[in-house]
Amino acid sequence: MKSSDRQPVANPGDHKPMGMADTIGGDETGGQAAIIQELRDAVSARDDFLAVAAHELRNPITPIRISVHLLRLAQETGDQARISSLLDRLDHQIERFISRMDVLLDIAQISSNQLRLERSEVDLSETVKRVIEEHQPMLVRAGSELTARIEDSIIGFLDAVAFTQIVENLISNAIKYGQCKPIEVTLTSARDQAELTVCDHGIGIGLEDRERIFQRFERAVQRKSHTGFGLGLWVSRRLTEAMGGSIGVIGQKGAGSLFTVTLPLKGTNR
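Predicted structure:
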């Protein structure tokens, strides 16, 4: 037999079960795809955090700018009592802005269910009254009248900053979409629970949108009609649920919306 006719002797390890090469290649491809997806998720998480940060820091900045403007007007008239009152308000607003910065990381952790709550005794009644007062300039500019029915001295063991954010988001939402019509806010308590309602008579929300608007980057109308990221209701729901409560909405298109928040006063985590 010629050497050219000889068949090469195979090593025992040279033979692979049929399909093994394809499996190895598939595993490598799958691993690369997983890494790429992880990178995309990380970029998406970063973008989400930046959007949340922009939204949550913009809300307290607006009343600060308004207070500065009113303070300048008071200085021109020399109204010392008005100046003193505005300085007190501005100081409180700056403190709240700092608190909001402190919880930004907590908001970024909402999706991973790692939100840290700092519970303390909170006067919900005074909180709602204060938020309404701070939104008066915005109400005037929008041409909306807000009436409130606030039960006195409702005390709850809640996260003060989180509750304030919820109230701010709902009232800001009512002003934005209320079409200059009246807004009603109520706060009541019963059976160790507090119930906050914010009702407007604006564009309303269709049945098919009642769940969608609580999703991230969603809103009741298209983006071109109103500015913002569509995060307020998403943040409000996550914060409410983190404190053991619930939030929902009823309404019809063109007939306004009624948002209801229910929170346990004794504090319960979900």
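Summary: The longest strand covers residues 183-190.
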